[in-house]
Amino acid sequence: MLNIKNFREEAHKMVDWMADYLESIQDYPILSQVEPNTIYDALPNDPPQDSESIPQIMKDFNELIMPGITHWQSPNFHAYFPANSSRPSILAEMLTATLGTQCMMWSTSPAAAELEEKMMDWLKTMLGLPDHFEGTIQDTASTATLCAIITAREKHSDYQVNQKGFSTQKIFRVYCSTETHSSIEKGVKIAGLGQENLVKIPVDEVLAMKADLLEKAIKEDIAAGYQPVCVVAAIGTTGTTAIDPLKSIAAICQKYDVWLHVDAAYAGNACILPEYRWMIEGTETADSFVFNPHKWLFTNFDCTAYFVKDRQTLLKTFSISPEYLKTRKDGAVNNYKDWGIPLGRRFRALKLWFVIRNFGVKGLQAIIRGHIQMAQDLSKVIEKREDFELLAPTNLNLICFRYHPPHIQDETLLNKLNADLLHAANASGQLFISHTKVNGKYTLRMCIAQTYVEPKHMWAAWEALLKCLP
Ligand SMILES: *Cc1c(COP(=O)(O)O)cnc(C)c1O
């Protein structure tokens, strides 16, 4: 067993390992090159009966585990959306692990509850969210969206589904665009509403929800005896960062008294830039709003910011003790176990505090602005090329494009060429990009958002991709 003296020594060595890794991260092939089951088969079938030393474990970590790691923090990582970390965030995570607190209630660590409350205030100010919002940190946007759907369900059933189940209710309907994230569908299923009652509204040519068709669907549902309970608007879809017309959607939700949940998981982070706040105009009347600092605000996964207009509705849905009726004015405090699904909670506010203080809001703004500028520059280059085309507008820093030489018109062949190109580029180890389908077209997705990405990394990745052309 590790005594405190050895712990101190090993921890010092570990910090050196961490700094060495971060210093040389760009030299690793980004995607792990291992074959399936290599790592599983290399590990012993039975757990050790006797103590093994940390150096022994670290040796195996380096030899067995590291080859199977995909390097998400590499500045050459341009796939999916990032799961950004940063140096101050890592330091805070070390403290979080060391304290090992369970932050379910105020009393189980008053500092955690109060720092969380303050960090949510800071984030609200940073994004220019409505003053009346109150927030809590959740593990993921999927969980936050599930909370929103369940809360909408409870509000519309006068909290009766929680008590009696669905038997006395009409059939509830939820709406989102055809481009919305799969977490909405998952949430609707788990909330017991039934996947068939998720109505997918068609999108326009820039892949944003058609608000007029939303209103039409709601009207038709009401006429058919259904009860519309929730609309999920996407600010920055996962496929292409399409931006639903929030103002129009918000007006429709008000008119028909439907819960409006804003899923800004990724793009919400750009709202720390005043010039991008137009994307969330309409949030004033939204019931809930989610974004992920763990995607693009340099804060280790997991850290999701979930805001609600009326916290009483949330607490009435999730609280398991009568304390939800108390407010701060009564001298009460926030017990965040009542603000969502899990009872136990990590001390996640700490890393936000470290990140926001160490970068400063201006520092964070400069990085995000830089990412958007870089992507815009590359997007222009791609647009000008004869043999490439953009398949969606580059709204922020996600470029959706494909290889399309003028002499090839066959869509099946184009899909194959682009799938091959993606595979070859990723196999080069020099960059990692992902793909989606836009109107059936195989689309390469390149996201310029890694914490420490610089123009030199992006252009090198682009050159490496070009080398893989057939
Ligand atoms: C990533 C993403 C999600 C899911 O985020 P998790 O935190 O991993 O659950 C939801 N919606 C959108 C638009 C996303 O981009």
In short:
The protein is α/β, with parallel strands linked by helices and 470 residues long.
Structure description:
This protein is an alpha/beta fold. The chain has 2 domains: 1-31 and 70-86 and 362-470, Alpha-Beta Complex (Aspartate Aminotransferase, domain 1); 101-346, Type I PLP-dependent aspartate aminotransferase-like (Major domain) (Aspartate Aminotransferase, domain 2, 3-Layer(aba) Sandwich), CATH 3.40.640.10. It is 43% helix and 12% strand. The protein has 15 helices and 11 strands. It has helices spanning 4-24, 38-42, 54-65, 87-99, 110-127, 141-156, 160-164, 182-190, 211-223, 246-255, 293-296, 311-318, 349-384, 411-427, 455-467; strands spanning 134-138, 172-177, 198-201, 227-234, 259-263, 288-291, 304-308, 388-390, 398-403, 434-438, 441-447. The protein has a 7-stranded mixed sheet, with helices on both faces. A 4-stranded antiparallel sheet has the order 8-9-11-10. Strand 2 (172-177), helix 8 (182-190) and strand 3 (198-201) form a beta-alpha-beta unit. Helix 4 runs antiparallel to helix 13 and helix 14 crosses helix 15 (455-467). It is globular. It starts with a helix and ends with a helix. The chain binds pyridoxal-5'-phosphate. Pyridoxal-5'-phosphate (PLP) binds next to helix 6.
